[in-house]
Every structure is written in C-alpha cells, then in structure tokens.
Input
Amino acid sequence: MRIKLTILLLFSMRLTFAQDSVFARKMVDTLTSPYFWGRGYTKNGMTKAADFLTSQLKSYGVSPMDGKSFMQKFSYPVNTFPGKMEVAINRVKLSPGRDFIISADSRGVRGKGSLVQKDSVTFVDPVNHIIVELQDKLTWSAEQKVLDCTLIELDKKLQKTTPLSIKVNIENQLIDDFKATNLCGIVKGTSKPDSIIVYTAHYDHLGGMGSATYFPGANDNASGVTQVLSLAKYYSAHPQPYSIAFILFAGEEAGLLGSKYFSENPPIPLKNIRFLVNLDIEGTGNEGITVVNASVYPNEFSMLRQVNEKGKYLVKVNSRGKAANSDHYFFTEKGVPAFFIYTLGGIKAYHDIYDIRATLPLTEYRNLFNLLIKFNDGLMNKN
Output
C-alpha cells in the first residue's frame, strides 16, 4: 500500500509540475503575442493587456483590493512611434530593431542628407538634426519627453560600411496624458486579514517602434507577471491566515511610474504590509537568483536562504543591497519591507526584439514558485 501511495504521490507531483509548466508557457506565449504589441503605447497594447490580466484575476477568484475595482488609473506623458519607421544608410534600407533603433526621446523627421563623422562611432546630419551612433548592442527604452534632434543607433556588427548618407521617414507622437492602469487584487486572510503579504510585477513593456516592429518582453516581464498569476491562482484556492495581495504595475519602463503612483495613493494601508516581493525578469534561474534589499532586511534574507537550502530549490541565492531598479523601490522608501528578486543565467536578451518566448527557458519556474510559497509560510510563522 505504501508503494502505491508513493507512486501516486510522485505521479501527482509530476502532473502538477506539468500543469504549471503548461500554464507558464501558455501565459508567456499569450502576453508576448502581436495582439498585445509589446504591452506598450501603440496599437492599444497596454490597455489590451490590462483587460486580459483583469479577467485572469477575476477567473481565479481574487477580489479587487479596494472592494470595487481591480483597476487603479493614472496617467503620464510618453513619446511614441506609431507610424513610419524608415531608415536607409548609404542607400541601404535598414530593419527596425535588428539593424537600428531610435532613441525613445527622439523627434520625428523626414528627409535625406550627408553624414559628417565626429569620432569613431558618431556621425551627424546637421541639416536634419540627426545623430547616428554605432553601438555594440541595441537596447530600447521609454521616454516622457521629446528632444529637438533624432538619435539613431546602428548595430556596429551589422553596419559593414562607414555611414556617409542617410534617408529617413520617422513619425513620432508625444502623448501628454497617456492613460495607464495598475491592477490590484487581494485574497483576504482567514484570521489576520489586516496583515498583508504582497506580490508584484510590472506588466508593461516597450511596445512598438513603428507600425511593423514590436518588443515582446518575454523575460521582461511576461515571466514575472506569469509567476504572480500562478501565486494568485494558488492563494485563491488556499487562503492563508494573512491576506495575500497582488499588484501588476503599468509604467515601469517609463520610470517606475505605476509603483510610485500606488505608493502615493495606496488602496490599502502601507503600514499593514508585512512584506512585499517584487518579481521582474523571472524566466531563467539556472544560475540562481539575486535578491535586491537583501542587506537591508537581513532577517528575511536569512530566512529565504534557509528555506532554499532546506528545499534545494535553486543553486544560489545572491545578496544585493538597496537599488532603485524596479517597482519595490518606492515602497522601501516609504518604510515597506520589500525584496526585488530576479533570476540569473540563460538568455541575455534585454529591451530588444530578441526577448521572445521561444528562447525563454522557464527552467526554474516551479522551483521559484515553491521557494516563494515556503518563504511566505515563514513570514506568517507557519514553518
């Protein structure tokens, strides 16, 4: 009988892992699809993502954090590139994202001209106020302003000849009041509902650069969103003594704007947050994880490491100090204890068109999930 039970348990564990793996891959596939267009500022990508993720939280049985709506709305200015994105160097048409990117604070421009070399990597078209730079890696961003020039970055490895002439047709649009939405849910605690543990991730990414090129954002941060959704599913089915809250932020790529807004307009008292764990770049992990704020909260970090050593979940749990590099930051500034956890190893794609689901391993997805569950038990004194 014991042998049968052991076999049944092992089969159940494998089936659960398989289900989790299928869920994670399907969710990352969905969030990185062209329909959401990089979850950014053109083709309604961020709004579509917000609507989809809200429907997911509802389907799991999560409740709105304020008891009324999952959506916390705010706005900010952002520079966008919804239309033409045409660049030719030396009469050779270049491919957006692959051969070149436009600095996110660039103005739109249409024209052609000669390039004057300023140094080994910089070339200028003074008539059209265009700057061309050769870069080892093309990394895009989001900006809230527009400069009076256009900066075009070329992939140094792909640009085989010295840039002498340029022809461009680039369209930009500064949106002064872009409407964005944080998504805020909670599962009420069974005995201590005013003590809250929060899991967060940003669901926005960079969106599109022109009408034909978008940045999928698989690792950054469809992976973190997916992990938060997995936690939401689990805790909806397994309520805890403490309340467990979930926040999916917008505006992270433009400067941590969603988390800043939430921290200044919290639907729940910040003093009630026992701990916050922010998940950003969660798709790898074969070399372990790094924990930002580990040195700020040594007791919780020691607990996390002990849980990992006992469960043998990840090969390494690295310590890092305070850093303003993700959505945990403004909570820490207001006295909320928080970690930012990101995974290590695997793909190196970041803020480029190559951050895609096909090359995202998700190898430690389940182990990271289990580590977070057991760490949460420790925070609630259940271990």
Residues 84-170 form one domain. Residues 75 and 179 are 5 Å apart (CA to CA).
